[in-house]
Amino acid sequence: MTRAALAVDLGGTELRAAIVEETGAVSAFAATATAAAAGPDAVIDQIVALVGRVATERPQIAPVGLGVGAPGPLDGEAGIAIAPPTLAGWRDVPLAARLEARLGLPVRIENDANAAALGEWRFGAGRGTRSVVFVTVSTGIGGGVIADGRLLRGHRGLAAEVGHMTIAAGRERCACGALGCWEALASGTALGREAARRVEAGEAPAIAARAAGGAPTARHVAEAARAGDPVAAGLLQAEAVWLGIGLVNLLHLYAPERLILGGGVGEALDLMRATIEATIAERAMVAYRDVPVVAAALGRNAGLVGAAGLVL
After folding, report:
1. Which PANTHER family match (predicted)?
2. pLDDT tens digit string along 82-102?
3. In terms of Cα–Cα distance, which of 112, 111, 147, 142 is closest to 129?
C-alpha cells in the first residue's frame, strides 16, 4: 500500500492541500483563496473542506496524518499559531489540536518556510548538502535554515523569521508593525505596492493592462517584464537589490552551501539573478561570494512536500 500523508500549505493569499507520497510525489492537489481576513474559524473550515476534497481523489490511500505549513511566528511543538501577521485575528490559535479534533488524524504544524526548506533539502534544490537557507518570497518573506543536516528551529521553533530582519531605517511599515523589515521592502506585496504607485501616476500602462483594472501584483510586474516593458524591468531590478541585501545578511549569519529562492517572486529569479549576484558581490565578504543562489526545484510544491514530511 502507498504510504502517504495529507499536507496543507496555509498562505496569506492562497490555501493549498495535497496528498504527498513518501517519495515526495504529489498525487492529489486542490487550492483556494485564503479567507485571511475572516479569522481562524473560517480558515480552519476551509482547511477541513480542502483536505476532504483531496482525500476523495485518492480514496484507496489511508493518510498517516496531516502536516501543515503555516505562516509564523508559531510554536510547532505545541501546535500553536502565535500571531501570524498575514492572517487577521490569529493569536495563540491551537491549530494542530483543532484540526485533530475535526479530522481524527494526527496533525503536525511547522512554519511554512521551514516546511518548504525541508522539502527542498530532501527532494529538491538542496539535495546533497548539509547547510542551506531557503527563502520564500510571496505575500510575505519567510525562511528556513538547514544547518549541519538539521532544521534550525530555535526557542519555541521561532528561529529564522528572516522576513523581519530590519534592513532599512524609516522605510515602509511591515504587516508585523515594525519599520524597515525585509518583508516590507522586498515581498511580493511590496513589489505590487510599488507597481500600484507607478500605475496611479500613469507611468506603467503595460502593468495596468495586465491588472485589468484591479490592483497590480508582483505577477503582473513579472509578466510585463518578460514581455519587454522597461518600467516593469526597472521595478524587478529594484526588487533584486533589496533581495540581494537580505541574502547577504543570511550568508553572513548561516554560511550555507546554497541559497534557495522560492515563492511567487522567486519564480522570476532568472530576471533578477544578475542584479542579485552583483549586490552580493558588492556587499558580502569575499569568503561568501561564491555561494550560488538557485531556484526552488519543487516550485510551489516545496511547502506541501515538506509539510507531509512532518508526519511521514
Report:
1. GLUCOKINASE, ROK (REPRESSOR, ORF, KINASE) FAMILY
2. 999 889 999 999 999 999 999
3. 147
